[in-house]
């Protein structure tokens, strides 16, 4: 019995030691990532100060303050532009509306950071799927994940195609650009929205359009900004973009997202990374 008690306490001491070490490592990791985020924000400020960069994206759409003085005109309504690209990011790049829960610091390269839906799916919608979802870059989407979809439109005479390069043309390198952004949460639910329908393309009045962009997810917040993505965590994006970000989340069937990744004109088969939220007022426009 004495030996059993001794062994019990040895195991207890070992468990406490391991827990303490793991906890300390966790805090160290969090501190490291916090330092990394602070360094990236400082680098972004240093690399843009006095260099004429316009307002940047993403931002908190519930905060309208900004002091960037580089003003450019709002792009036309999307009905008068050509849809040129559709892609999405794992977790929302923007913050606001009902996606204000922070996913964490991430790895500094756009993975496991951004914002997620503040709500909760029904238990029946949370059943895992037995397939890889948009995993060509290694990380499969999961039921319950939040994604931010970007429907990119260009004033140039272009057609839908891969990458943002499809939005530009040689004889018009600075066309008006507009991004219609919609945040979705992924559910295992046949009755949820079908992403293939949401990304359906047709010609309307001579323009390439995605006519099924949700129209019932709140009044879009429009502002002047830039392109996004983690490549711009430490440098400014030079492109001028009009953003239209819907504040409410919609529920989409994860299986339809997987099917779309398997076959689409944009060659999109993975979720893009997230750029750090831009909070420096000098890099933000005023939201009217």
Describe, in plain words, how this protein is organized in 3D:
This protein is of the alpha+beta class. It is 21% helix and 18% strand. Strands 1, 4, 5, 8, 9 and 10 form a six-stranded mixed beta sheet that branches. A two-stranded antiparallel sheet has the order 2-3. It has a two-stranded antiparallel sheet with strand order 6-7.
As residue ranges, the low-confidence spans are: 1-30
Q: How far do the termini sit from each other?
A: 75 Å
Number of strands: 10
- Proportion of helical residues: 10-25%
List the helices and strands in order.
Answer: HEEEEEHEEEEEH
Instruction: Categorize the overall geometry.
Output: globular
Brief summary of the model shown:
The protein is an alpha+beta fold.
Helix-strand layout with pairing:
Layout (H helix, E strand, L loop, with lengths): L1 H47 L33 E9 L10 E2 L12 E2 L29 E9 L22 E11 L7 H4 L3 E3 L2 E3 L11 E5 L15 E5 L4 E4 H9 L26
Parallel strand pairs: 5-9, 5-10
Antiparallel strand pairs: 1-4, 2-3, 4-5, 6-7, 8-9
Keywords:
288 residues, alpha+beta, 6-stranded mixed sheet, two-stranded antiparallel ribbon, 10 strands, disordered N terminus
């Amino acid at each position: 019995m004495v030996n059993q008690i001794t062994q019990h306490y040895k195991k207890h001491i070992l468990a406490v030691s391991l827990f303490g070490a793991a906890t300390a490592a966790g805090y160290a990791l969090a501190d490291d990532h916090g330092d990394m985020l602070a360094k990236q924000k400082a680098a972004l400020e240093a690399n843009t100060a006095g260099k004429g960069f316009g307002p940047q994206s993403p931002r908190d759409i519930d905060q309208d303050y900004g002091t960037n003085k580089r003003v450019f005109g709002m792009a036309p309504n999307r009905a008068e532009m050509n849809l040129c690209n559709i892609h999405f990011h794992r977790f929302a790049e923007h913050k606001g509306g009902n996606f204000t829960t922070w996913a964490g610091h991430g790895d500094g390269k756009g993975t496991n950071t951004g914002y997620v839906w503040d709500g909760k799916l029904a238990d029946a919608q949370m059943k895992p799927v037995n397939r890889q979802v948009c995993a060509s870059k290694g990380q499969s989407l999961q039921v319950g994940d939040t994604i931010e979809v970007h429907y990119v439109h260009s004033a140039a005479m272009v057609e839908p195609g891969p990458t943002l390069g499809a939005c530009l043309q040689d004889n018009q390198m600075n066309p008006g650009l507009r991004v219609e952004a919609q945040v979705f949460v992924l559910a295992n639910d046949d009755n949820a929205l079908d992403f293939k329908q949401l990304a359906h393309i047709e010609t309307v009045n001579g323009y390439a359009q995605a006519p099924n962009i949700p129209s019932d997810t709140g009044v879009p917040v429009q502002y002047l900004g830039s392109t996004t993505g983690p490549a711009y965590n430490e440098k400014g994006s030079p492109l001028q973009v009009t953003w239209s970000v819907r504040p409410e989340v919609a529920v989409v069937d994860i299986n339809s997202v997987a099917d779309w990744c398997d076959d689409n004109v944009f060659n999109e088969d993975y979720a893009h990374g997230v750029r750090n939220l831009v909070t420096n007022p000098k890099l933000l426009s005023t939201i009217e």
